[in-house]
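User: I'm curious what two different proteins look like when written out as structure tokens. Can you demonstrate?

Assistant: Sure. I'll show them one after the other, since each token string lines up with its own sequence. Here's the first protein:
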Amino acid sequence: MTTQPNRSDRWAAMGFTPAAADVDEPDQPVLVEYLSDGKIALITLNRPEADNAITTAMGTRLTEILETVAVRAQVRVAVVTGAGDRAFSIGSDLSQRKQMTKEDWLRQRQDFDRVLYTLRQLRKPIFAAVNGLAFGGGSELAQSTDFIIAADNAVFGQPEAMIGLSAGGGSPVLLPRVLPRGKALQMLMTGESVSAQEAYRLGMANEVHPQADLMAAALKIAERIANNSPTAVQAVKRAVRMSDGEPLEQAISIMMEAHWRSAVHPDRVEGIAAFIEDREPHFQDPDY
């Protein structure tokens, strides 16, 4: 007969506790800094005392920031991270949800869906610098970006089934695309987490860095992206996303549309001239 773990063991395995109801709320639940002459948007989930658990206010603010990034022409790349040295985000704030009516819950769910949709649809490159715990919606937020780099203390998990939920922020679709299907299902069904090192081994995280070095590594990547043609970078992102799952020739057709548009774009002329003249290129911000 299988022995069921007692409650303390069950929740201790998750590695975190619900956010305290009386946690002091920051003035801004999400911060944004525009770096490198405005080319890089550094977005920080800012409730470190609550392991950056996502409240309704945080979701609303994050959507606003992503929408601003989308239309601010000079922004060429965005990075998402968490405040503090413990957590990227442990997902939805369950202490807040405990007080909600069914209508409140469903309304918040719509708000969170809007955040993730806005993130997935962002034309510009955006990646996650996961600086610690990434559970539930926090892990799904990271999965919804273009790629992930992680601190060596990062942990990824989908514990929704442990609290009676089917994951609803994208992981049943996204995890099997970045992990072996069986491993993704095991995580979703058991609530078991994976370390940064395991996520790297399996291909979920591109790089792992000591926590103290994570943001320097993230900004180095962001600078390299920002210094390339934003039109070309956005076109290749669209080609990758739009061709995913398509038959080979349809995928090639999508790729070639992006290629031919770049071939007649001024950035191609500037890029080749800079290479021949052995200088840095000066790419223009897109006019859309």
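Here's a second, unrelated protein for contrast:
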Amino acid sequence: MRASAADDGLGVLDRMTRILEAFDQEDSGLRISELATRAGLPKSTVSRLVSTLVRQRYLERDGRLIHLGLRLFELGQLAEQPRELRMAALPVMADLRNRTGENVHLAIRDGGEMVCIAVMRSPSAAAPIVRTGARLPVHATALGKAALAHAVPAEVTDVLGSGLEACTPQTITDPAELQRQLAEIRRGSLAAEVREFAASLSCTAIAVFAPGGGLAGALSVSGCADRFDPDRVAPAVRAAATALARRLASAGAASA
């Protein structure tokens, strides 16, 4: 088969996936020709794509042998942590939803964004605006403020310096005001968001900590801005964060 014909039949991502999946745990390294055979791709195509994957650290080259790279391990670690957090959080989120009658979200921080990894919808609340997998601006969400308050100063500076884009007219775009809110959160206040991310939504959130004391993520309760009462849900939110931290500690002890 001509290389061009194979390239036409598969997208670049498909071809790269075939190459990465050609490895198994018994391999001590593969030559280009072996990779091409296992992936079912022309040798010239594999050679070209391997060069790209090596540059991006998804693969490593040792002479003529190709190995899986460090970046794949790093990504695997990133995927494992939110999965464990999500599994520990789901029962806590269900209880929080039942206690408050509102939608509950769990998210982790990735730079200047929060990534939502779980949503627990309340039957009595409107459909949640934020879905699992959604990325949210740190500065415009209660989830983001709860997490950012516990970031190292350099990371906070990066977020403040990147420009605080307005999602609604109520979004906090003044770095000094956001710094003031983060200081209050560090002193024990819950993070708050009033029509800042979506005009119809208000939210309150709290950071969740891992057994070692590091930030694991943030947990929130949100509802219709016209009727949402953060003081009413605050005790349940705090109790949920404590319960989730205990579950994470128990899971860590069990796996140790």
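A detail about the second structure: The chain has nine helices and eight strands.
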